[in-house]
């Protein structure tokens, strides 16, 4: 080997070494620079939805992404960026209704057109001043009023004209407010709400998932980044098929027969459902947060069983004693607070519930909307 060749090889080796060192240094800088982004400073707004892909009609949620073209993630910004409400500025001729709530409102086992939001939009309602009523489904499948409040706080930035908030007792117990994953993984959004709205919740609760410095680095956030990229990938499949959840040919129907002596509700025995145990204050907080925007609170329909020992329980969720006390408390509180409140608990026959005591069939959803429609019309055109 000539001296010139040896010199060239040394230069090449040095060049490769320098490139590797610089690449590693740049990666380390980027990795730790990402960690310096304050908690809550997320990258979820970088999305193909509403740009190259249509916005989803429901917030992403799913445990079977290959079949549902959907998945659950905890980045609130990514959830909203994928939704049709983020498509652009609110049109001047739009009367905007935002729906929040649980899986019943999100529409488990329902096609989008059969959900409450879908039915409202198909009805072509108009406001008194001639604006077209457009409803956006921002419900999310977990039961926690704090989760609803978190979503409401974000939804207010999209200028709603009316908020419809279907609720049910299962979302009220104080002890479950912070352990739903969307809440637990967004302490930087929830803790300020607790303090700002003076909620009787622990802002320092161990339920909150507080990221460490390493968790906020590029490597530490690799799972969140992967999920966000997956959501973009499945968006193309969803746009092509319209599928955003699995629709099994068969499912286990909601329970209608119960054991004798089965009186418990979340471990509580009869007479133990005191107002200090349920988070009515979160409804007050939601109304205060909305300010001048009207909020319609709806006690959503539940399955009222006619099966064995149905004199003890209405359904799997609710013994009669607990649910009756809850309804009485809601009636009193709504009157005292002058809430716009509608109790539709018994509006749907038991045969129109599917795999849960709150999930409706398409026919049940139609009945629900018919019962709710006069109140919506009065809210849209007072």
Biggest sheet overview: 5 strands, parallel
Q: Output the radius of gyration.
A: 25 Å
What's the architecture in CATH terms?
3-Layer(aba) Sandwich
Q: What is the 3D shape?
A: globular
| Total of helices | 12
Number of strands: 5
Strand ordering within the main sheet: 2-1-3-4-5
Q: What is the CATH topology descriptor?
A: Rossmann fold
Low-confidence stretches: 22-44
Averaged pLDDT, please?
A: 87
Describe this structure in words.
It is a single chain. The protein is α/β, with parallel strands linked by helices and 382 residues long. The protein has a single domain, classed as Rossmann fold (3-Layer(aba) Sandwich). Helices cover 38% and strands 7% of the residues. It contains twelve helices and five strands. The chain has a five-stranded parallel β-sheet with strand order 2-1-3-4-5, with helices on both faces. Helix 11 links the parallel strand 4 (295-299) and strand 5. Helix 6 packs parallel to helix 10. The longest helix has 33 residues, at 3-35. The chain is globular and about 90 Å long. The relative contact order is 0.14. Residues 22-44 have low confidence and may be disordered.
List keywords for this structure.
382 residues, alpha/beta, Rossmann fold, 12 helices, 38% helix, globular
What are the SSEs and their pairings?
Blueprint: H1 3-35, H2 65-68, H3 76-81, E1 94-99, H4 103-106, H5 116-122, E2 132-137, H6 145-155, E3 162-167, H7 181-184, H8 187-196, H9 222-241, H10 280-290, E4 295-299, H11 320-337, E5 340-343, H12 362-380
Parallel strand pairs: 1-2, 1-3, 3-4, 4-5
Helix pairs in contact: 6-10
